Amino acid sequence: MCGLTTDQIAAAFLTSEATMGQRLLRARKALRAARADVRTPDPDQLAGRLSEVLAVVYLVFNEGYLASAGREPARRDLAAQAVTLTRLLHQLMPREPEVLGLLALLLLHESRAATRFDGWGRLVRLAEQDRTRWDQALISEAVTLLDRALAVREAGPYQVQAAIAALHAQAPDYERTDWAQIRLLYDRLQALAPSPVVRLNRAVATRYVLGPEAALAEITPLADELDSYRLFHALRAGLLTGLGREEEARAARERALALAANPAERELLTRRLSL
Question: Which of 31, 39, 84, 179 is least surrounded by CB atoms within 10 angstroms?
């Protein structure tokens, strides 16, 4: 319904295209067997379906923010569609904290859209982005939405992710980001929505709080679960470089490059391999 291909959905769920194809086939058969139709649910049914709807919208945004494959590094149309859908959800459920949290999260990401690629279409890492070009109006709107969500005191994963993004948005520069607080927020996120990717992201904060050796120790147990995830190997390469283990770092970077399908990510990894 959102226009994503099977391989794009598979990338979002960190699984193979063949596996996702089978899942989608089973889902279609189940819908046909149940004679399911697409209709607007009654108001009292909205809350029970909300988590699945938010998850789909977020996956659509992620595919638009950094495409999993194809010639274009980003799909601005998909990102805009996801923001529009989330604003519609906010109109339907204005006091729902996770809707507020997701909208805040997407707006915080969107505030950096103009700085994520340079004039040649190359990916610019967060640490190197020009923060003076970030959209302060979107950041202000997002922080207001997040404050309203947190006031409800019903913590959810989108609110926590928005809080992490807000700390990045409000930091004067990358080095002076409140990494200790971000690390604590990832602990909270892991408790709410356990995932090896959450633990991987936590290790980025660990790197700046405790150093690369501690961060490497955190991600080493994730090797089997995330072996096919390019960002695991990219982070591992950076940590190994920080420890002076250049030969291992190069091998990890080559593995990340082999797994990357986005052209901008591939260019960045290739450029770093040539250094």
Answer: 39
